[in-house]
Structures are given as structure tokens and as C-alpha cells.
Specification:
Order of helices and strands: HEEEEHHEEHE
Mean pLDDT: 90
Low-confidence stretches: none
Shape: globular
Radius of gyration: 17 Å
């Protein structure tokens, strides 16, 4: 059996939709900051890029490009109060169970079981769609987001890409 050529398949699909070839990020290293305390004492937040928004918020543009919107999601939000608008992946399963792309119920269960210290007061949904302006992310948006996480006392961020 041949492996799925994921990058080639994406290039073909989005090329047919009129998108320019995607310039994939390449990094020689991935810095890791070890935890300074046990996970059971850590405050954890989460970010999904899956086009997830609370029903009370505006829907995402399902064909977004360079969308730097970042929605705050209260950690106590009910998982049945969300909508998904994203044309970049099949979210049929996530429409049935939001936890496929935004596992907020699972995160709360981990906190209740003592596996993590606590869930941060804010969770996040953002950076949806294809982002071509990576410098904007790296130099402006990500540092601003990191400041929000720091303000919330977040020790660990779970990134859930779609």
C-alpha cells in the first residue's frame, strides 16, 4: 500500500480552487521548554484553528485566508453552544462532537481527575484558514497571544490544529 502523499494532495486540491502554491514552514529545530512543575499542578489552556466559534459569536469565513482573529472562549462554555465554519477539512464528526476539534469537555475531565492542575479561565479559537503572512503571526500575533496566556497564568497550551 502506498502512503498518502498529504502535501501533494493538498497542493492539488487547493490549486484547483485557485490558491497559490503553499510555502510550507520549515524549521531546523523546535525549542522545547520543559515544565518546571508537575502537570497535575499546571494551568492548561487550549487553541483550536478549526473554524470553531460560539453560536453567540460571528461565524468564521469558511474560506478564510490570513485571518488573525482570535476568539476568547470561557472555559465553562457548554460544548453544545458552538458552530463550525471551515471549508479546509471535513468536520462532519466534529459537528456531532465538538471535542474532535476543540476538546473542552476532555480538558475539564482531566482537571476533575487531577491529571492537570486546572483549566485556564479562557480557551481560544483562532488563526483559522490558510495563513500566508507567517511573519505577521511570528512577529506580532503570536507574541500578543503569548501575553494573553501569561496574563492568565497558563503553564501549558494545547494546540489543536484542524
Amino acid at each position: 500500500m502506498e502512503p498518502i502523499r498529504y502535501v501533494d494532495a493538498l497542493a492539488e486540491k487547493y490549486g484547483a480552487m485557485g490558491f497559490p502554491p503553499y510555502d510550507w514552514s520549515r524549521y531546523d529545530d523546535a525549542p522545547l521548554t520543559p515544565l518546571t512543575k508537575p502537570l497535575a499542578e499546571c494551568t492548561v489552556s487550549m487553541l483550536t484553528s478549526g473554524g470553531v466559534s460560539q453560536c453567540s459569536m460571528p461565524a468564521w469565513d469558511p474560506d478564510a485566508r490570513n485571518d488573525f482573529r482570535l476568539d476568547e472562549v470561557p472555559s465553562a462554555a457548554s460544548s453544545d453552544g458552538f458552530q463550525i465554519h471551515d471549508n479546509y477539512y471535513d468536520h462532519t464528526d466534529a459537528d456531532t462532537d465538538l471535542n474532535c476539534v476543540f476538546p473542552l469537555d476532555r480538558l475539564r475531565e482531566l482537571a476533575a481527575a487531577g491529571e492537570i492542575g486546572s483549566v485556564s479561565r479562557r480557551l481560544w479559537s483562532g488563526f483559522m484558514g490558510r495563513i500566508y503572512k507567517r511573519r505577521e503571526v511570528m512577529e506580532l500575533q503570536a507574541p500578543a497571544f503569548a501575553m494573553q496566556l501569561k496574563a492568565d497564568g497558563v503553564d501549558v497550551l494545547v494546540a489543536v490544529p484542524a
